[in-house]
Amino acid sequence: MPELELYNVIWLFVVIFMLHDFEEIITVEKWAQAKGEKVKLHNNWIISKIWSFWNISSYDFAKRDIFIFLFMAIITFIKALYLESYWSSVLFVSFLIFVLLHNLIHILQTLIIRAYTPGLYTAILLVTPYTVYILYRLRDASLI
Predict the structure, then answer these.
(1) Under 8 Å between Cβ of 73 and 15
(2) What is the pLDDT of residue 2?
(3) Alpha-carbon gap, residue 139 to 104, rounded angstroms
């Protein structure tokens, strides 16, 4: 199997992450309607914080996600434009670590609520493995 050029691997991250965002956007409203009563039964500070984040319409969630997409696209563009640069690697790797923490939060929220939370499947099956793959490729190219 041919290996993708690093430049393409970096740009493909935008597509992979947007698939994750689409899962969140598509499922958030129906999830909030289905899980609302169960979550409200818990009189727990952290569960109420998790609930306040996810209790939103798909439209409002998509509006919130546009800023994440723009931020990610700009960082990815900078990394692709300055592929060999140390400072672009620091910026891009910092963002990748943020994404890994974001995925960990999906898992923690699911464990705390004891129910699926929007974005969990793509966070585990797509975004985390691809993020680790990018980090491996950057290290292999001696860019980190």
Answers:
(1) no
(2) 62
(3) 22
